[in-house]
Amino acid sequence: MRQSKLYIPTLREVPSDAEAKSHQLLVRAGYIRQSVSGVYSFLPLGRKVLRKVETIVREEMDRIGSQEVLMPALQPSELWEESGRWHTYGPELMRLNDRHNRTFALGATHEELITSLLRNEVRSYKELPMVLYQIQGKFRDEKRPRFGLLRGREFIMKDAYSFDVDQEGLDQNYDDIFNAYKRVFERCGLNFRAVIADSGAMGGKDTHEFMVLADIGEDTIAYSNESDFAANIEMAPVKVEYSKKDDPEKELGSVETIGQKTISEVADFMDVPKEDCIKSLLWMVDEKPVLVLSRGDHEINDVKVKNVLDAEVVELATEEQTKQVLGCEPGYIGPIDVSDDVLIIADHAVQSIVNGVCGANRVNEHYQNVNPERDFKVQQYADLRFIQEGDPSPDGQGTIVFARGIEVGHVFKLGTKYSESLGANILDQNGKSAPIIMGSYGIGVSRTMAAVVEQMHDDNGVLWPAALSPFDVHLICVNPKNDEQSELGERMYEELSSKRMDLLYDDRKERAGVKFTDADLIGVPVQIIVGKKASEGIVEVKDRKSGEKLEMPASEIEAYLGQNYL
Ligand code: ATP
Ligand code: MG
């Protein structure tokens, strides 16, 4: 396409409200424009890239036998009432009324709608398994829409839903879709990890998030430097063999520690390593007090506390509650001589502490030479702490490293939550009626496009991978007023286009500097520059990523591109 005819409004200035690189570059290079906060238009270049992401997603979903549908964004509130989510989804769900005062939601997700679609029509196990997907705009009134396409209020999602008779069927579909997602993100050229995620309130067992490694990411993931292991830090199990020093146990004693409250203060003051301190935190677990112990250099993970105690609500006790239960303010609390009404649980590491330090449940006082089991009883030792960088990977291979991640995909075993509440049943092999077993799977299509830019850019602009670039080749005629340059440029544009290459042809009557700056900003992987040597039939090829330039006869370009870029 001729750049002179294309709508590519590039900007030299960084938009003032754009923090994320992808946001800055996609606006500056003329791919997107904001309408209102979290709502964007895709301009011609942006639409092209988005379509490429969509095509990859479609190909991989179709490959596993999944079928594309298109459901409405406008959904009657009754369906959300049936599932219960009209009340639980919260303010993120965009709600509106029609002229008859009927209430609707704009689809934030489509579990309700798709379940209602099938419930009266799919009746026999013979019709399953089935996976349906769509690529469509989703609406979520995010609290903090930001980072451009990364967190929008209207965005493009590929959502898919699987329907099975039994758990094995679900497991199979889950694996197939998991692998399809891996291929999608590989084809997008992304550095990503499939991480074990928290199933949260949804109560499901298996769930993974696909995380693109990028500093702007809002999640922290722990992954192994040697294997595939990766988990959301909340979910990463700690598997460490702690060894106990064989020092003789000394006599318990108390020490005056005026004003020394934090582990750092106490460790410094008493001149002991943090590892020898017992950190005690009082939690209210389903309204009952639980004292949770960890080593001073570790952090308690409330998700693990919640899971170990099979609890609903886990909250740190307030200062008031702490005083009430332990008779002392936080900072000096500990497990010795605590009333039997308080459950004491501890992270495994605590078991190996010898002659440690802990609070005395009296202000300005700590104990030294504390030995677990001799000086206090623990009802349960468990894995309760956050994994840390440098810990061994739980799969036994390599060491844990942290990175920030952008969630681009999510696979989730739903089970029967929606089929039960909305009444989607089938007759199984034995003629018995049972709710359909479902899975739910999402890819943030527009977010993926931005995540690619987060990983692939430099100071001058975007560095598209060939699979997503809006064009295969950027042909630039430096000076179209020069007949030789213009003729060679036009000829190459015609010839290469006829070879099924998708070219962006810069035929604009602009200064050379403007053209080169725009080309780098737009970020097509290879540029062909028709300049002064056009008279000799020589052009320049520039690799956008490395910046390397090469001169060659125009006649060799087609073969060179075929070998290196297409
Ligand atoms: P997040 O934790 O980032 O809010 P989520 O867990 O709410 O995401 P899902 O409900 O699993 O997201 O949606 C499926 C996919 O849709 C996500 O993996 C993500 O890629 C994408 N997505 C979700 N919310 C947004 C948003 N506000 N803007 C752009 N993409 C989004
Ligand atoms: Mg999610």
Structural account:
With 566 residues, the chain is an alpha+beta fold. The protein has three domains: 277 residues, Bira Bifunctional Protein, Domain 2 (BirA Bifunctional Protein, domain 2, 2-Layer Sandwich); 130 residues, Alpha-Beta Complex (YbaK protein), CATH 3.90.960.10; 92 residues, Anticodon-binding domain (Rossmann fold), CATH 3.40.50. It is 25% helix and 28% strand. The protein has 14 helices and 31 strands. The strands form eight sheets. Strands 3, 7, 8, 9, 10, 11, 12, 21 and 24 form a nine-stranded mixed beta sheet that branches. A hairpin with a 2-residue loop joins strand 25 and strand 26. Helix 2 packs antiparallel against helix 6. Adenosine-5'-triphosphate (ATP) binds next to strand 8, strand 21, strand 24 and helix 11. The site of adenosine-5'-triphosphate has 15 residues, from strand 8, strand 21, strand 24 and helix 11.
Task: Give the key terms.
566 residues, alpha+beta, YbaK protein, Rossmann fold, five-stranded mixed β-sheet, 14 helices, 31 strands, binds adenosine-5'-triphosphate
Topology, element by element:
Elements: H1 21-28, E1 32-34, E2 40-42, H2 44-63, E3 67-68, E4 74-76, H3 77-83, H4 85-88, E5 94-97, E6 103-106, H5 111-119, E7 130-139, E8 154-164, H6 167-187, E9 192-196, E10 207-213, E11 219-224, E12 230-232, E13 253-256, H7 263-270, E14 278-285, E15 288-295, H8 302-308, E16 314-316, H9 319-326, E17 343-347, E18 356-359, E19 365-370, E20 380-382, E21 400-415, H10 417-422, E22 425-427, E23 433-435, E24 437-444, H11 445-455, E25 457-458, E26 461-462, E27 473-477, H12 483-498, E28 503-506, H13 512-522, E29 526-530, E30 538-543, E31 549-553, H14 557-564
Parallel strand pairs: 3-7, 15-17, 17-20, 27-28, 27-29
Antiparallel strand pairs: 1-2, 4-6, 5-6, 7-8, 8-24, 9-10, 10-21, 11-12, 11-21, 13-19, 14-15, 14-16, 18-19, 21-24, 22-23, 25-26, 29-30, 30-31
Helix pairs in contact: 1-11, 2-6, 2-11
The protein binds adenosine-5'-triphosphate and magnesium ion.
